[in-house]
Specification:
About 40% of the residues lie in helices and about 25% in strands. It is α+β, with helices and mostly antiparallel strands. The strands form 3 sheets. Strands 6, 7, 8, 9, 10 and 11 form a 6-stranded antiparallel β-sheet that branches. The protein has a 3-stranded antiparallel β-sheet with strand order 3-4-5. It has a two-stranded antiparallel sheet with strand order 1-2. Helix 1 packs antiparallel against helix 2, helix 2 crosses helix 3 and helix 5 packs antiparallel against helix 6. The longest helix is centred in the middle third of the chain and has 33 residues.
Length: about 260
């Protein structure tokens, strides 16, 4: 499928469009667009669609309710379902939510997970030894094994990003743009675009990350600020602000 690169006329964010795509949604500024000539800003025109309707589409996607997101967008934008499907799938949320599920975890999270795995693993082994053909003990052992498997499944995808965030290559990342995806208790689930400059002087690169941030961290990572990050070298596909967030340049000043 041929991809056409364009820019959001409203905020400048990249829009990766496919051939024959007639509408698009900007994840950053929650604007719906009609596309007359992909690749040319003059041919990408804003729809008179309220931002709250676009936010509803984004929220449904984030909740894993793709079909409902497509149906809602088709209804409020008065589109054919195939056109709405292309626009919804154009949102980068599928890849971004995979990133979210692979966010680094802190030492407490690792310790807690291993504690749960060890506890339920021990209980399951003890139950299996006592089973001797008794169904209730085997049921308990099976339940413990299932819980251990769920914890391991949760932990494994996060180990790589955790190593990157702690031991990755050092860089400085300028916040190009950000958008709230979902308010959270005491924080924000947000989409960020970073321009990362490695400290070794090699070429800069851009990445997008979904981050779960507390209120203080959200305030620090405002567009224009430059934060210390760790990134995966040589792939350069992930970059995470160091914790606690350290601002080295920008409107908010250095750390």
């Amino acid at each position: 499928m041929h991809i056409v690169s364009a820019r959001c006329p409203n905020c400048g964010a990249p829009l990766d469009l496919v051939e024959h795509q007639t509408h698009a949604i900007c994840a950053y500024c929650s604007v719906s667009f009609r596309i007359d000539s992909p690749g040319e800003s003059a041919g990408i025109l804003a729809d008179p669609l309220p931002a709250q309707e676009v936010d509803r589409v984004k929220a449904l996607v984030l909740e894993g309710r793709r079909d409902e997101a497509i149906d809602h967008y088709a209804r409020v934008a008065t589109l054919a379902r195939t056109d709405a499907e292309r626009a919804v799938d154009q949102l980068a949320f599928w890849a971004l939510m995979r990133k979210f599920r692979r966010l680094p975890i802190n030492a407490f999270g690792i310790a807690s997970t291993f504690g749960v795995v060890g506890g339920f693993g021990s209980l399951g082994a003890w139950s299996a030894l006592r089973a001797s053909g008794s169904t209730p003990w085997w049921a308990l052992a099976a339940a413990c094994a299932a819980l251990v498997a769920l914890q391991v499944r949760w932990l494994v995808p996060r180990l790589g990003p955790t190593l990157v965030s702690r031991f990755g290559a050092d860089g400085r990342a300028r916040v190009l743009r950000r958008a709230v995806l979902r308010p959270m208790r005491g924080g924000t689930l947000a989409l960020f675009a970073f321009e990362v400059q490695p400290v070794d002087g090699s070429a800069a690169f851009t990445v997008e990350e979904v981050l779960a941030l507390g209120d203080a961290s959200w305030a620090r990572l405002e567009p224009g600020n430059v934060a210390r990050v760790r990134f995966d070298e040589p792939a350069r596909r992930r970059a995470f602000p160091v914790s606690p967030i350290e601002i080295v340049d920008g409107p908010s000043g250095g750390s």
